């Protein structure tokens, strides 16, 4: 077992009488790519917001073990929409986090230029967001978070609004970028194949606020290998069971 970067213990979150997370235990290992899979309303986005520190638990605990320099792990979050500032260029959007005092120790302008190249954005570096495709805008959004060197990158269905071909190309790009930068990822999705392509670990939420299972996943070489992935049938069956239970309720 690897070093734990984030840990949820008996995590419970309620909105009024609705229990969204119910006693969830979850370890995020350093240098892993954990994908949380579940249908709409299963609690996966709430779980991500708890990990980001944007929601307080009603009971249970979130811990961020020492990142190795006497501080807790630093978390960066990417949302479904890019949320770029329309009056700033691509370069300036990526560099935006460096303006804040809390990030200054982890930020340098040279790293922005490295990310522009790594993320394939050199030709767009001086463009405004209005000139970008959806895929380019989401890459800028991710680069902006990565520019302040988080220990853990959280992603809330970042490709859900994109067409299938763009989604597939960005899945390839994200897996390669995570490896190149040594990032620990936690991503939520409702797409079984996206989970299998990206993940080294998969957690399935059961729709009642609990984790239905957690598996180690050997990421396939390419998208064409997904149909034969040994976990695919198990995850599809669990996912369909959730949808049936949700429809019945």
Helix count? 7
Within CATH, the superfamily of the largest domain carries the name P-loop containing nucleotide triphosphate hydrolases
Structural class: alpha/beta
CATH topology of the largest domain: Rossmann fold
- How many domains, as an integer? 2
Largest sheet: 6 strands, mixed
Strand order of the largest sheet: 5-6-7-3-8-9
What's the CATH first level of the largest domain?
Answer: Alpha Beta
**Which blocks of ≥5 consecutive residues have pLDDT under 50?**
none
pLDDT averaged residue by residue: 86
> What is the CATH architecture annotation of the largest domain?
3-Layer(aba) Sandwich
Global shape: globular
Supply Rg.
18 Å
β-strand percent reads: 15-25%
Percent helix, as a range, is 25-40%
Number of strands: 9
Distance between the termini: 38 Å
- H-E order: EEEHEEHHHEHEHEEH
């Amino acid at each position: 077992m690897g070093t734990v970067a984030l840990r949820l213990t008996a995590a419970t979150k309620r909105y009024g009488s609705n229990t969204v997370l119910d006693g969830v235990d979850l370890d995020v290992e350093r240098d892993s790519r954990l994908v949380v899979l579940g249908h709409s309303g299963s609690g996966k986005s709430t779980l991500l917001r708890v990990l980001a520190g944007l929601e307080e638990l009603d009971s249970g605990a979130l811990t961020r073990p020492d990142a190795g320099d006497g501080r807790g792990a630093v978390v960066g979050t990417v949302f479904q929409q890019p949320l770029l500032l329309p009056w700033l260029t691509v370069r300036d959007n990526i560099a935006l986090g460096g303006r804040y005092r809390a990030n200054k120790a982890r930020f340098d302008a040279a790293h922005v230029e490295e990310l522009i190249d790594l993320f394939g954005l050199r030709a767009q570096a001086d463009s405004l967001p209005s000139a970008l495709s959806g895929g380019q805008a989401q890459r800028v959004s991710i680069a902006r978070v990565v520019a302040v060197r988080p220990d853990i990158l959280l992603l809330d269905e970042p490709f859900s609004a994109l067409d299938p071909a763009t989604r597939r190309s960005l899945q390839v790009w994200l897996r390669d970028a995570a490896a190149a930068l040594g990032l620990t990822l936690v991503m939520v999705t409702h797409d079984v194949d996206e989970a299998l392509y990206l993940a080294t670990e998969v957690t399935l939420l059961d729709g009642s606020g609990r984790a239905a299972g957690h598996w180690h996943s050997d990421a396939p070489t390419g998208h064409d290998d997904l149909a034969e992935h040994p976990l695919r049938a198990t995850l599809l069956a669990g996912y369909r069971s959730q949808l049936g239970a949700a429809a019945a309720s």
